[in-house]
Amino acid sequence: MLRELFIRLSQNGTARDFVTHFGPARRAARRFVAGETLDEAVAVVRALNARGIKGLLNEVGESVTTPEEANQAAQAFHHLLHRIHAEKLDATISLKPSHIGLSFGPDFYYENVAGIVETARQLGNTVEIDIEGSPDVPATLDVYHRLLDTFGGGVRQAVQAYLYRTPADVQAIANRGGSIRLVKGAYSEPPEIAHQSKTAINQAAIELMEIFLSDEAQANGAYLALGSHDPVLIEWLIREARARGIGKDRFEFQMLLGVRRDEQQRLADLGYTVRVYVPYGRAWYPYFMRRLAERPANVLFMARAVIGK
Ligand SMILES: Cc1cc2nc3c(=O)[nH]c(=O)nc-3n(C[C@H](O)[C@H](O)[C@H](O)COP(=O)(O)OP(=O)(O)OC[C@H]3O[C@@H](n4cnc5c(N)ncnc54)[C@H](O)[C@@H]3O)c2cc1C
Predict the structure, then answer these.
(1) CATH class of this structure's domain 34-283
(2) How far is CA 129 from CA 76, 164, 245, in A?
(3) Cα–Cα distance between 305 and 157 in angstroms, integer?
(4) Does the active-site annotation cover 130?
(5) Tens-place pLDDT, residues 230-257
(6) Top mutation candidate among 183, 264, 292, 299 for ligand 1, by most atoms within 8 Å of CB
(7) Is 263 touching ligand 1 by the criterion CB < 6 Å?
């Protein structure tokens, strides 16, 4: 119920105006969002790098309303890649399809994302693509395959364990030696298309990891990033990779800024690749609300910050 409420609030304009202008709530958000400017995000990534953790920078923003806005957002990702290069950060970028124009059609989106992947390639970097609500999933995955056709690699696609369609999507990517970020899924999807219980979603996630760890997928060069804080999934991956003799360079762990910071460090200290998603930018509100939706403790954390304890 709490989850539904915060997901709904994440889309509500009045709530957004209130929270984004309310000082204590803005301060609470800083645990999960690096700041409103790129300079602030660079400082956060530098601190992560100093602790042996990689960055995954995302200028937050979703669902632009005009093609011009989408092109501007795409330009910002080019700029971001150049800044990462200039600052010699150990970081890549993540973008949302709706932010760079998926709603204006797959071709429009493809042009923008392909331009960004090309810039990344020239700078020796890579690009990650977030996955959004179910109406956007088919086109997002089609474009990912087009990107693989064009570039061969250098781009990773997030996929959601809760969707029933994902095993087929993951198998298709594994067959091509592509790369996924496996997440549970952050949107509210109906039971007709998505698992609802935590047990079913975890079981689905394990079966998806099995596809990527199979001999065939590994021989194709498939690379798995697990985007989760769940100890059950993290320990499963560590155990299973060890049992199958899959090296630490063949998969990685990804977590969100401000979530399970001790665990991020523990895994990095054990020699695993750990990458932390660092969102920044003025449009941080929906992102912050989805983090509150995920976990009652996050709401308590914000409540304490707001009442000043
Ligand atoms: C790097 C990254 C990228 C993502 N990208 C996308 C995307 O593109 N599209 C999308 O739909 N979703 C994305 N997500 C969000 C994802 O779908 C989940 O909503 C989110 O990660 C919560 O799921 P979980 O796997 O962490 O497990 P949960 O079921 O939320 O948590 C499992 C367990 O993790 C532990 N845990 C979780 N949070 C905390 C905490 N704050 N402190 C201590 N323990 C904690 C607890 O033991 C908890 O029981 C992303 C997540 C990550 C980490």
Answers:
(1) alpha beta
(2) 15, 20, 29
(3) 35
(4) yes
(5) 999 999 999 999 999 999 999 999 999 9
(6) 183
(7) no
